[in-house]
Each structure stands twice: as C-alpha cells, then as structure tokens.
Amino acid sequence: MSSRLRLIAPVLALTLVAAACGGAASPSPNASTAPPSATPAASAEASPTPSAAATPAAICDDAAAFRASVVELTDLKLLEVGTSGVKAAVADVKANAEALLVSGKDLVAEPLADLLAAVTALQATLTSLGDQPSLGTGVAAVRLAIEQIKTAADNVEAVLGTTCPTQ
User: What is the pTM assigned to this prediction?
Assistant: First the structure.
C-alpha cells in the first residue's frame, strides 16, 4: 500500500498543479502522455474541494490585496480625506474584490456579491453628497456604508479562512 501511494502521489501532484496553473489549453498536449488511469483518480480526489480548481496562490494574493484595501477604507479619517479620498479607497476595494472574484470563482462568489452591493451603496451615497472637500454633513451615512462593507468583508474572510488564513 505504501509503495503504491508513492507511485500515485507524484502523478496526482502533477495533475493538481497542471489543473491549478492552466486552463483547458495547457493540459491538452500533456494529456496524451499521462497514464489514463491517473487522470480519473486525480479528478475524483480533486472534486470535493471547490478551491482545487483555482490556483491557491492567486486566490491568496488577491485576498491579501483585498484585505489591505478594506483596512485602508475602514481606517480613513473621513473629514481629512474628503469625498475624493473615500471614492479612491472604495474604487480600490471594488477592484480588489473583483480580482478576488475572478481568482476565487465559486469559493467567494456569494459573499463578494454582497460586498460589491455594499460598495455600490457607498458609491451612491458619495454621489448624492457631491464633491465636497469635507464630508461634514454626510459623515454618518458614509460611516454606516463603510461599516456595511466591513461586515461584508468579514463574511468574505470567513469563507477564505481555510484557503488563505491571515498571518
């Protein structure tokens, strides 16, 4: 049993790396060189985890950028940065969330949809305020919208916890 596992493990590892690193075009030329019995075993083992199809490194890189942008947004001094500063931070969160959605695919689709809805709500709040150097009159609404983004980001983090734990 141990020697059999030693023979199958490298084939399984190569199959998982190939699946994680490339799309359908990359594995096709190599598919004819792989033993037919190795491919079904690898597929059966890889299917239970939804993150096995995505590159874990790409997901975690995008998750780190997403985390940093959420921290930047939640740490803003609203009255100091004004509407334009909040808009820039929100745009950064949105771009990083969209990148994470692409790399994370099914893993984070639902919580990121909620987060992107919260981002859209904050953008609408900012638009209704206009371009003000200070957010004095709209601080409460902006803070509430940022808090909703933070809550949605916490839900994304809960899903990412096992795939990309924070360090």
Answer: 0.63
Q: What is the DSSP string of 13-82?
A: HHHHHHHHH--STTHHHHHTTS-TTHHHHHHHHHTT-GGGSS-HHHHHHHHHHHHHHHHHHHT--HHHHH
With CA atoms as reference, report the closest residue to 166 among 96, 64, 62, 70. Answer: 64
Task: Specify the amino acid at residue 148.
Answer: Q
| Secondary structure string (H, E, C) spanning 90-129 | HHHHHHHHHHHHHHHHHHCHHHHHHHHHHHHHHHHHHHHH
- Show the tokens assigned to 88: 């820039």
Tell me the average pLDDT of the chain: 72
Stretch 93-103: mean pLDDT, rounded?
94
